[in-house]
Automatic annotation (TrEMBL):
The keyword Transferase does not apply. InterPro entries: Haem_Oase-like_multi-hlx, PqqC, PqqC-like, Thiaminase-2/PQQC. Its EC number is 1.3.3.11. One of its GO terms (molecular function) is pyrroloquinoline-quinone synthase activity. Ring cyclization and eight-electron oxidation of 3a-(2-amino-2-carboxyethyl)-4,5-dioxo-4,5,6,7,8,9-hexahydroquinoline-7,9-dicarboxylic-acid to PQQ. Belongs to the PqqC family. Pfam families: TENA_THI-4. This is Pyrroloquinoline-quinone synthase. Keywords: Oxidoreductase, PQQ biosynthesis.
Amino acid sequence: MATSQDVLSREDFLAALQALSHRYWGTHPFHQRMHAGELTEHELRTWAANRWYYQCMLPQKDAAIISNCPLPEVRRQWLDRIVYHDGKVDGEGGAASWLRLCQAVGLTREEVLDQRHIAPGTRFAVDAYVNFARQQPWIIGVASGLTEMFSGHLMRQRVSDVLAGYSWIRREDLAYFTTRIDKVSGEGKETVDLVLEHCDTRALQDAAVAALSFKCDVLWSLLDSIERAAAKG
Ligand SMILES: O=C(O)c1cc(C(=O)O)c2c(n1)C(=O)C(=O)c1cc(C(=O)O)[nH]c1-2
């Protein structure tokens, strides 16, 4: 007789992870308004400036996973994510592309870099994600990044909807997303494979599902914070 402690098959474990897709930030009202072309320039600027904090902290989150991981082959693989965001040299990489997007929506480099627009809730949500990766077993930190399974579709939709809805934003301004879409299709599969392989007890499988649920909360809270900060004007 199957009990709640039985290890799930790969298929059932993957299905339990994918079942969280309805909690992903694609359905957040702020994203829905962005996609409908309804955001004001101020709202777009608040979004870009606040999300900068997420972009900044991702390499520290990934470094925390590496520091907790005893497996050289995984550390080697994961290191690529840090280089992806930070670039090999200053002015390259995901962070630099995000800065270009910030400038395209009308922010100066200075006001993004000095973080003056970052709302308390943004810091709180993003810091919670980094602390989670610091404190959890490495594979559970990896599992929290599985929201990326859901992100390719959303980013593709975002590029076409933003180009359709905001005539002053050009395709090259969205290079962060067009580059990321290609990257995420490969990385996303790698991450799923790691989690399916290394979460080999029911306790780890349950912890991975809980980690993905936690990450959906982080992203949702981030948009709640952005929406509120933008409404204050
Ligand atoms: O624009 C998006 O909707 C979106 C979502 C996510 C995500 O689902 O966490 C990431 C990204 N973008 C992204 O660009 C990115 O580099 C990234 C890294 C991670 C992560 O958890 O390690 N998520 C995401």
